[in-house]
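User: quick one, sequence for these tokens?
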């Protein structure tokens, strides 16, 4: 997988760093879209991924945006990361 970090990671909580590193490490071990989707699901179940980030899939990519600490219903304008598959 090709992981591209597109913006700053706002480390307002020590858990943010751990979640990001765990997600990136898991992504780098995947070989295809199916494994990526399974890995993200597992990561979301075992970490605070959904608390700090929103994410989704395009036809040939996976994207991640970071939630704002002041209002978790809102996100920063730019994507934090994209993974092309």
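Assistant:
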């Amino acid at each position: 997988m090709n992981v591209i970090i597109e913006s700053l990671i706002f480390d307002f909580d020590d858990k943010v760093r751990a979640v990001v590193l765990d997600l990136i490490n898991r992504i780098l071990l995947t070989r295809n879209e199916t494994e990526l989707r399974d890995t993200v699901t597992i990561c979301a179940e075992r970490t605070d991924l959904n608390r700090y980030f929103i994410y989704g899939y395009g036809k040939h990519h996976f994207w991640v945006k970071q939630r704002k600490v002041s209002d978790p219903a809102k996100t920063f304008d730019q994507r934090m990361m994209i993974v092309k598959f």
